């Protein structure tokens, strides 16, 4: 057999230098080569001739050459197209061979050295990230080649440089042997996607360094030592430290934690170079089966973060990185798993600065071999071990100086194999100061943590309860945030707080990876798998984040923030008692202020501050609420108590809500007919029946008018456009109820009217609603009563037959003319909520337009319900419209400009076109959301089981001057 061609070579590359620590703070000269480069795309690896690598080649005017922005992906700059697969390799699996169709980007860049580029020394050409394989030439000389996309690679080039007209040429292949190690669930995006820099290395420059900064919680001292392999000094002026490399000092310091990210400026200097850095003192250990930082158990309130920007893919600018982290901090998130590769190194600086625990994960995933029963899995084949070790080294060496990085992760979803063991052995030996992570069973030797993905709440509980020697348990992924959801977060959090060994988890995932595209008529939408003509793809499974592609928080993020709040406020609003529990791992509550307001019927009538005593982490304080104001107003009353930032922080202004609770003070008035005994009798009026303010079709019993407002098609509705979590995971048939709902035909229910029965006090309409081809059905009786002003509906639903699936929703739907598009309600808000995603729903008065009520999930699906609604008004610009109030129980309110059927049929947001109706759903019940698009489904208590139900509403017409 001949030697493999370099891009099909399982060895990690040729000609690159050993990995070393990142030195962003170096005072050595550096030239960023980002900018406009010449670019030519070939369909195969050998397609373009190699003349372009020669020194004298001139691409200007040569066929096929364009200008490309580097760093960047060519497929996002008009050359070729992105492609999305989850686990499947988009090429035949024949490792390490790749197809002839191997899009290859030739990149060429000319540069001059700045006039003040120093004489002497060495120079390195550094690539922070190239997908998936690069071969490099400088001034006509080949430097070598490398694989390992999300890892740095350096070449020594000093001898080749000239003051002017340097020619850098990089040939990048989309597919290589390395692609088999990079089967992460994301877009395939080839290119030079992180910076290329030229680094001057003066004589006596820092070759590599490692600043060890531990913290001894028993006496509050820091332990500092620099490892440098050459003569060097480390100074930390603020601490009065100036030591030589190898020397260790112990002195009092303030520790670094994710809650208190205390950093000290430091400088490491050798004869030729000074490197500025920020040091954080902290020690991470596993003790008695518990992961501890600085002596204390920590709890991960985490997310998995891919590098993603909607315009530039995995080229992510620093502003976006900071924005991600600021948003995380604002939402009480304290940990990031860098799924599933090391991030841009600047991201870790920001984690140090803002305070997040980081699991730094290696660029490794071979998930596609699962479809072959893991035959030929590279992590279980010696030939690949050098490549695996190379990846481990490049990660650990680059990132070893970050206090935020507390755990190394071998990679993701590679099955198991000896190669992982080799990586683990090397990492443990190189860095015994950090635990190692890999998702697997609890007895898996190559992980110090027991890490699982998507277990049910009950499994977490079972693991939490176990006695004896165990590893700390983390959920490296849970709560699949695809589309509407994830549901069931609160139940997980309770377990994390209850069991010491359950140390939290990382929601999958931070952001939707939608790519902006336009319809033919110019409207923008976010595209997903299949939208670029891919033969093999996994659709919108790439849109499963807590934020939309443009970083607008999705309701799932608001819910997560509430569920993981680091302060828990409980109490009894009637007895005016209040307990504030500090759930931080380290911080006391001195950074917070406690505010209260007292609300009657949703209106805040009084408010103020309560003194917040000093509550150490893990403890609570009991307080007393003030005497409620005498308002003279009757009705439902509640306290809203919130813990807010007392001062501006690096990530949110003073006043930012960190935690809150609402405590009922006076319960809602008992439900019932507000006008018992005052009912009016229906009157026949031609083809209509008049009842109080309403008109009905006398033949069908359909409500047609309320006051001046035309009402259309009011009847029982059980259908919702299935969410991604309703649909379930494609590889786990039956995991979500959506397919069963469709099979049964809940999207095409038929309604038969059996009787319209006017009597002295109202009208009864007896019906049966059922799908075709089954004898299952719902007997539905609508009982209408009225006073002169009010119309009341009482609905009774009695199922017939053996239903073996829950209902999507249960309530009534009706249409109003499009002009009634302003909504005001007293109930949960401001955002959407469902039975298992309602923790963040805040009871109050809210106002929105119908358009504003929609949540624009990248793939349209059920959204926008508001929980616990007491009353709602739908009005036009003049205030005319209708008011609906809860009958027997609070209801779920949804209003949109399209039907659930349209919503269900839409593939992208631009498929949703308003018609001339506002469709209103008033629901007695909604099915929960769960996480079945990848994880467990809806917990039993959040299922909407088919059972007899009674519910009702009171309607009134608004004439334009009436107040809600
Ligand atoms: C996990 C995997 C992630 C992602 C997720 C589903 O199995 O580790 O990369 O694919 O499922 O979105």
UniProtKB/TrEMBL annotation:
Entry's Gene Ontology cellular component terms: beta-galactosidase complex
Catalysed reaction, written as an equation: Hydrolysis of terminal non-reducing beta-D-galactose residues in beta-D-galactosides
Pfam family, one: LacZ_4
One GO MF term attached to the UniProt entry: beta-galactosidase activity
InterPro entries: B-gal_small/dom_5 (IPR004199), Bact_Beta-galactosidase (IPR050347), Beta-gal/glucu_dom_sf (IPR036156), Gal_mutarotase_sf_dom (IPR011013), Galactose-bd-like_sf (IPR008979), GH (IPR017853), GH-type_carb-bd (IPR014718), Glyco_hydro_2 (IPR006101)
The UniProt record lists the keyword Chaperone: no
Positions of the Beta galactosidase small chain/ domain: 690-956
Keywords, alphabetical: Glycosidase, Hydrolase
Transmembrane listed as a keyword: no
EC number: 3.2.1.23
Biological processes annotated in GO: lactose catabolic process
SUPFAM superfamilies: (Trans)glycosidases, beta-Galactosidase/glucuronidase domain, Galactose mutarotase-like, Galactose-binding domain-like
Segments forming a coiled coil: none
PANTHER family, alphabetized: BETA-GALACTOSIDASE
Family indicated by similarity: Belongs to the glycosyl hydrolase 2 family.
Name under which the protein is recorded: Beta-galactosidase
